[in-house]
Write a structure and sequence with these properties.
The complex is a heterodimer.
Chain A (H helix, E strand, L loop, with lengths): L3 E4 L2 E4 L5 E7 L5 E8 L3 E10 L2 E4 L6 E7 L2 E6 L8 E9 L2 E7 L3 E5 L1
Parallel strand pairs in A: 2-11
Antiparallel strand pairs in A: 1-3, 3-8, 4-5, 4-9, 5-6, 7-8, 9-10, 9-11
Chain B lengths: L8 E5 L4 E6 L9 E6 L6 E6 L4 E2 L4 E4 L5 E6 L8 E7 L9 E6 L1
Parallel strand pairs in B: 1-9
Antiparallel strand pairs in B: 2-7, 3-4, 3-8, 5-6, 6-7, 8-9
The chains are: A mainly beta, B mainly beta.
């Protein structure tokens, strides 16, 4: 399995609080992605990164920000969590020569009450 | 909307071949077809991809029609552990739709 870890694996937080999810890889892959998965919507891309300090928006980026200060870490921040952001969040990685061959982490289940 | 369409569900008997279809009539000439699967609540797992030619790896085979409007993922000897949701994705789009829920039955 690709070396991808996500932390925390589970989190319950209250509406209005900031939340940061971490994705860590040991594969030295160039690209990193954040997705959310909700019933009826499948997987949707939030943000992605194509290198250190290089990020771009995905399909559902509103309410989320990201940062990548090191190759191995990609952080997803919810500045002020809302109940609509209750979801399962997956991180994925891929390398420069096969950007669409993505390897996913185990996911973080976030509940906003 | 995603560029691919798949049946919502399929059943397969254990030990038999599972053939999962995907329609992608609008993909462009340089666009790859990728297959992933997601077992229960785990992260999606890459299976295989192809452009024009048929492809095979240790997990599955991918048959792409000559006109590239559709493809079939083949699991040659399905096991209970192959029960999952299977996603067919166009590379320039990379949208995971609803996929096909494959249930392998004993």
């Amino acid at each position: 399995d690709a070396g991808i870890t996500q932390s925390p694996r589970h989190k319950v937080t209250e509406t209005g609080t900031p939340v940061t999810l971490r994705c860590h890889q040991t594969e030295n892959h160039r690209y990193m992605y954040w997705y959310r998965q909700d019933p009826g919507h499948g997987l949707r891309l939030i943000h992605y990164s194509y290198g250190v300090k290089d990020t771009d928006k995905g399909e559902v980026s509103d309410g989320y920000s990201v940062s990548r200060s090191k190759t191995e870490d990609f952080l997803l921040t919810l500045e002020s969590a809302t109940s609509s952001q209750t979801s399962v969040y997956f991180c994925a990685i891929s390398d420069w020569d096969m950007p669409y061959e993505q390897y996913f982490g185990p996911g973080t289940r976030l509940t906003v009450t | 909307d995603a560029k691919t369409t798949q049946p919502p569900s399929m059943d397969c008997a254990e030990g038999r071949a599972a053939n999962l279809p995907c329609n992608h009539s609008t993909i462009s000439g340089n666009e790859y077809v990728y297959w992933y699967r997601q077992i229960h609540s785990q992260g999606p797992q890459y299976i295989i991809h192809g452009l024009k030619n048929n492809e095979t790896n240790e997990m599955a085979s991918l048959i792409i029609t000559e006109d590239r409007k559709s493809s079939t993922l083949i699991l040659p000897h399905a096991t209970l552990r192959d029960t999952a949701v299977y996603y067919c994705i166009a590379s320039n789009d990379m949208r995971f739709g609803a996929g096909t829920r494959l249930t392998v039955k004993p």
